[in-house]
Amino acid sequence: MNRNEVAPEDTWDLSKLFKNDEAWSEGLANYEKMAEQIPAFQGTLGTAPENLADYLEFSRDLGILEERLNYYSDLRQTEDEGDSSARTMAGRFLMAAAKVQAASAWSIPEIQSIPDPTIEEFLKDPRLQEFSIFLRKLLRYKPYILSAAEERLLALHSEGENTANDAFSVLTNVDLDFGTVDTPEGKKPLSQSTFSVFMENPDRKVRKAAYETFYRNFDSHKTTLATLYSAQVKQDVIRARIRGFSSARAAALFPDKVDEAVYDNLIKTIHANLDILHRYYHLKKTVLNVNPLRHYDVYAPLALVAHKKTSWNEAVDLVETALAPLGKEYTDTLAAGLRGRWADRYENKGKRSGAFSAGSFTGDPYILTNYKDDSIRDVFTVAHEGGHSMHSWYSARSNPFTHYNYTIFEAEVASTFNEELLFRHLLKTNSDPALKHYLLNKRADDILATLYRQTMFAEFESISHKLEEEGIPLTVDLLRAEYRKLLTQYFGPDVEFEPESDLEGLRIPHFYRAFYVYKYATGISAALALAEKVLSGGEPERNDYFNFLKSGGSRFPLESLKQAGVDMSAPEPIQAACQVFGRIVEQLSEVH
């Protein structure tokens, strides 16, 4: 359906950000007017603590308005990426923000130039206490901050940095028409968001037809897609080199204070446990009674209850009950938001595919889904995105704006924690053996997708960036060849691929935000450990978890998780997560 045909109660309410598009335009004008004050602060920040406080308070207020403008225009654009008015709003904001970045490019170098003893003395000023964490984190960047003139040039360039990502999104969500697929129930539309449902269809002919139709579209645009991804990688590498980082990966991990050894440790530990994954694919081959097991078979369910219908409100009820161990404040707040208008629930033409949570300091922690009531996976998506949103809810209420925002590394813990509690609740409260069988299969597939599959994606990102850094052009043939090697390694000897299977590496949206996906794998490992601690522990363990949710950006993620009881710098949590997956595979093997 078109966007204007969607019932308002099924959409998010962005009025906490701005009442409407006209109010947003007024906000943008105010933002541009405020920005005119920026030059007056230049040259004053190191002269007295009150001058630094004046600028930081101004910058905070400007930042809050900027975040509201950004979230509103971006969320409006995701509603229908073919809507030119929404794209115009997003473009207007980006242009205005780029000017603000350029106008304030001097500020970070100026703060960095203040001698350390002077900063320490300044921090005794009560007005600067709110900004102490921000300032101490900022000082870490001192070796990578350029001159004011150079920072201004980079800020001016920022407006074009999203071009590859935007082009990829428009191409795959708007311009590509995937058509329909013949099913026993008639023709059904194929899209980015419905593809996963087709891959779970128990009818192998339907899976094969959907797979071939889907990838035929990507094959006809493969060179364009490869060029877009290559451009993104080049940009990542250039940006890292300009700032003096040893690699694009090092630059991406630096803000979280995550050593590259953590990234390598994840890949190494997963490699050591690929035999468990291969056993699961062998089980699928046996149970599905297919030889060979093709790429379009690996997501097919081992149980036939995958199409049990669950309405949106029924999904909210399930999530609310499953998360009861977290207490009434948590569940009441989340349920009210999901039943209200935190979420933009259903697919419409041009809407961004997938799901996400967008939690800001000012508005509600908004959720985008493309919910389908015939996929139990989408119930877990509600729990997952609800975890993100409640993390945002607690963080925004427990921290000042300057450091309320938690990292993605931590975010994936809160979301997959909720999935684990939902799984355990459904497994415990359902007596139907067939449904329990499906839930085990579902959980195995979810852990596989989050732990193993995201690690494969992370390894591909590492390979592609390293090739670029070595001066090797990322052609479509090279990207496909490298991705096929990983497909073969991760899926093992029982899975056979189609000629177009390696095009999967050119259709992953997260690749346009480099070195993001490894956090899914580390996140589920931490979440499984914390879920066990909370459910088997008492009030202290729950309090530790809530302290983690409330920490926002007050600590670096590894420090925050360690205080919650999980050391992600060690291989043990990854190994333990693989063992959880292995035990589920064993349970499924016993059933069959």
The helix-and-strand class reads mainly alpha
Share of helical residues = 55-70%
The end-to-end span amounts to 42 Å
Mean pLDDT: 94
**From the 3D coordinates, which CATH architecture of the largest domain would you assign?**
Orthogonal Bundle
Pick out the low-confidence regions.
none
CATH topology of the largest domain: Neurolysin, domain 3
Principal-axis shape equals globular
List the strand order in the largest sheet.
4-6-5
Strand proportion, as a percent range, falls in: under 5%
Number of helices: 24
Radius of gyration (Å) = 24 Å
Indicate how many domains the architecture comprises: 2
The CATH homologous superfamily of the largest domain:
Oligoendopeptidase f, C-terminal domain
Biggest sheet character:
3 strands, mixed
Structure description:
The chain is mainly α and 592 residues long. The protein folds into 2 domains: 3-160, Oligopeptidase f, N-terminal domain (Butyryl-CoA Dehydrogenase, subunit A, domain 3, Up-down Bundle); 250-308 and 319-325 and 389-592, Orthogonal Bundle (Neurolysin, domain 3). Helices cover 62% and strands 4% of the residues. The protein is built from 24 helices and 7 strands. The protein has helices at 21-35, 49-79, 84-103, 107-112, 116-122, 132-140, 148-157, 163-175, 195-199, 204-219, 222-243, 248-253, 260-272, 274-288, 312-322, 328-339, 376-398, 408-429, 433-469, 476-491, 518-536, 539-550, 557-564, 572-591, and strands spanning 180-183, 186-189, 293-294, 343-344, 356-359, 365-368, 495-496. The strands form 3 sheets. The chain has a 3-stranded mixed sheet, with helices on both faces. A hairpin with a 2-residue loop joins strand 1 and strand 2. Helix 8 (163-175) packs antiparallel against helix 11, helix 15 packs across helix 18 and helix 17 packs across helix 18. It is globular, with a radius of gyration of 24 Å. The two termini are 42 Å apart. The mean pLDDT is 94.
